[in-house]
Design a protein that fits this description.
binds magnesium ion; ten-stranded mixed sheet; 425 residues; Adenylosuccinate Synthetase, Chain A, domain 1; Adenylosuccinate Synthetase, Chain A, domain 3; alpha/beta; binds 6-O-phosphoryl inosine monophosphate; four-stranded mixed sheet; Adenylosuccinate Synthetase, subunit A, domain 2; 32% helix; 12 helices; 20% strand; binds guanosine-5'-diphosphate
Length: 425
């Protein structure tokens, strides 16, 4: 497995948590490199269901070590609650989790600003953020006014935090939002910082040593998806980090050439939560059925996810940018009951045929999907343990999806459990 990156290749929620968990059986390290607790990665182990937001999904495998890299923005209270909940459920954390001293902090004022900015935007311009303070925290990082995990270890940290509260209150008042009380905020955060202190360290040397050691397998766990990438996604309806394979080097502090393998995760259809263009979105009974059968509700916010057919243009574009070597194709079982299934192979826009996602948001909003129809297989796939056992029509669908995207399927998922996974390669 060596040094492998797993990236969401649609608009997030592709099933990254499940794939990471399956592959962590052979991994020594699992590393998050971007995003924050806007992510919600679901892992089902036996009768237990875990939704991880900041902890790498490898935390559920006792032998894996986990890193929260420098590229993340970390909500200390959210992370503390998440880790304490895992500990209550019998998962040991001590000695296995390392938080980069360079990772940035998300503080209550970021969440307040996130909510207040969204509230001010008119309909059609709202992003539909998770309100986890992600955009404002990354803004502070770029503005060079953020606080980092390493600052928590400094003697004057509480003074730094109070100064930030005062500055942010000025911004909140411009937005007509209530101010925060610095004393109260510092007191509220103190227990979380005390809990997290032992985990904070310089993760860069330890990770680079692991990557140079040929006996160690390292998995990089992407959050969100390529279409939510700050550069390549449907800007401004995106998140604020580099969600693709390109984010690994800067978000974890490792050399790009040390990455051996990039696995793109795609659902056998498409979903999106939040606002922004979505060419294959369905508003009919098929769309409703995808949402119902796929149980498409946000793992972080509980919002219903918008659903549509597989978008080959999006997947092809994600594969090009990320250098995706193979797909993990998820939730094939959700398509089991459909009479007709469609794959979008191109977009038609202003009389032109497009095979890539355009940068212009207005152009993308005018794109109409060009579909190929497939006869459904109308039988359950969840019990299938090999490609041979799949119905012929399902095999045909997968083969065409590979052709349209130019990338082979290496992992096939036919149910949420670890056991419902077919590894082809
Ligand atoms: P992530 O953010 O990419 O980790 O994905 P989420 O956890 O937000 O959403 C994926 C959902 O699909 C979760 O509820 C998973 O348990 C579920 N899931 C993953 N793989 C499969 C699959 O192959 N079939 C079905 N039916 N559900 C799956
Ligand atoms: P995982 O890792 C799906 C979406 C939000 C919103 C946009 C910006 O579980 O796949 P933000 O709070 O990041 O500023 O919101 O990005 N979004 C996600 N959608 N899955 C996610 O994570 C997401 N994280 C953010 O809905 O549209
Ligand atoms: Mg999710």
């Amino acid at each position: 497995m060596a040094n492998t990156v797993l990236i969401g290749s649609q608009w997030g929620d592709e099933g990254k948590g499940k794939v990471i968990d399956v592959l962590t059986a052979d991994a020594d390290w699992v590393v998050r490199y971007q995003g924050g607790n806007n992510a919600g990665h679901t892992v089902e182990v036996g009768d237990q269901k875990y939704v991880l937001h900041l902890a790498p999904s490898g935390i559920l495998r006792p032998d894996a070590k986990c890193i929260i890299g420098n590229g993340l923005v970390v909500d200390p209270i959210g992370l503390t609650e998440e880790l304490q909940d895992l500990e209550k459920r019998g998962i040991s954390i001590a000695g296995r989790l390392f938080i980069s001293d360079r990772a940035h902090l998300v503080i209550q004022y970021h969440k307040e600003l996130d909510g207040a900015k969204e509230a001010k935007l008119e309909t059609g311009k709202k992003i539909g953020t998770t309100k986890r303070g992600i955009g404002p925290a990354y803004s502070d990082k770029a503005d060079r006014s953020g606080l980092r995990m390493g600052d928590v270890l400094e003697d004057d940290f509480e003074t730094m935090l109070r100064e930030r509260v005062a500055a942010k209150n000025a911004m909140l008042s411009v937005l007509g939002a209530p101010s925060l009380d610095a004393d109260e905020l510092v007191a509220t955060y103190r227990p979380a910082f005390e809990y997290l202190k032992p985990f904070i360290c310089d993760t860069v040397p330890m990770l680079n040593a692991a990557m140079r050691d040929s006996s160690q397998n390292v998995l990089f766990e992407g959050a969100q998806g390529v279409m939510l990438d700050i550069d390549f996604g449907t800007y401004p309806f995106v998140t604020s980090s580099s969600t693709g394979a390109g984010g690994v080097a800067s978000g974890a502090g490792v050399p790009p050439h040390a990455i051996d393998d990039v696995i793109g995760i795609v659902k056998a259809y498409t979903t999106r939560v939040g606002e922004g263009p979505f060419p294959t979105e369905l508003f009919d009974d098929d769309g409703k059925a995808l949402g119902k059968v796929g149980n498409e509700f946000g793992a972080t916010t509980g919002r219903p996810r918008r659903c549509g057919w597989f978008d080959g243009v999006v997947a092809r574009y994600a594969a090009m940018i990320g250098g995706i070597d193979r797909w993990a194709l998820m939730k094939l079982d959700v398509l089991d009951g459909f009479e007709t299934i469609k794959i979008c192979t191109a977009y038609e826009c202003d009389g032109e045929l497009l095979d890539m996602v355009p940068a212009s948001i207005s152009k993308l909003s005018r794109c109409k999907p060009v579909y190929e129809d497939f006869k459904g297989w109308n039988c359950p796939t969840t019990g299938c343990t090999s490609m041979d056992e799949l119905p012929e029509q399902a095999k045909k669908y997968i083969r065409r999806l590979e052709e349209v995207t130019g990338v082979p399927v290496a992992i096939l998922s036919v149910g949420p459990k670890r056991s419902s996974t077919i590894v082809l390669d």
